[in-house]
Amino acid sequence: MNTVSRALQRPSRSLTSQLCRSIRQHHHRAFPSPSASIATPHYTLGSGSPSLLRTSSYPTPSQPHRTFSHSSTTMAAAPKFARGMNKGQLQPELNSLLEQGWALDEDGMGVKKTYYFKTYFKAVSFVNVVASQSAAKKHHPTITVRIGSVDIHWTTHQPRGLTDKDLTMAQHCDEAAELMGAVEKDQGKKCGPSSPTPSSPGL
């Protein structure tokens, strides 16, 4: 009886061996070994480039390539001389005028400048001097008169573009403005309320 009892209490070696193998197989399926193959992105260093190149088969979103156009850059108008004009001869004269405060118009076919005066009378007197010179040269500008300033714009319509007449008359305008006492912009007469009349004594 004791022999049978000990046999029942002690498991056989074959049963123990089968149980251990079953446990190892279950553990292997639940926890794969570190050497198992896992699909991961692979990076390689491209030749001649400091950047990493992704060689994974995973799809990647396309990156938009942004380009910048230089056509939108705002640039000053280039001078456009009239047909038959000697550009090499007129360019130095134009450069001199630009240094004296003249500017090319939007089309580059004319020059313009604003003169400032302390009184409206001086502004009109300046216009009269320019008008006299224009009549003598048979070349007339576009003139805009304000209370303390005068806009002058010289261009040639036939042939269209800048000519020697425009540059010569622009120089005459500078001389006339100096003669009539032109001032800086902040000193020019401006529109505003008139000065109050002093009150009489006792009022």
TrEMBL record:
Question: What is the uppermost EC class here?
Answer: lyase
**Domain of life according to the entry:** Eukaryota
Extract the GO molecular function terms from the UniProt entry.
Answer: 4-alpha-hydroxytetrahydrobiopterin dehydratase activity
Keyword Hydrolase included in the entry's annotation: no
**Region (Disordered) location:** 50-71
InterPro entries per UniProt: PCD_sf, Pterin_deHydtase
Q: What is its EC number?
A: 4.2.1.96
Recorded hits in CDD domains, A to Z, give: PCD_DCoH
Swiss-Prot/TrEMBL catalytic activity: (4aS,6R)-4a-hydroxy-L-erythro-5,6,7,8-tetrahydrobiopterin = (6R)-L-erythro-6,7-dihydrobiopterin + H2O
What's one Pfam family here?
Pterin_4a
Task: Please provide the Gene Ontology terms (biological process) for this protein.
Answer: tetrahydrobiopterin biosynthetic process
> Record keywords: Signal included?
no
Provide this UniProt record's keywords sorted from A to Z.
Answer: Lyase
Q: Which PANTHER family match?
A: PTERIN-4-ALPHA-CARBINOLAMINE DEHYDRATASE
| UniProt similarity note | Belongs to the pterin-4-alpha-carbinolamine dehydratase family.
- Write down what this protein is called: 4a-hydroxytetrahydrobiopterin dehydratase
The major lineage groups are:
Eukaryota, Fungi, Dikarya, Ascomycota, Pezizomycotina
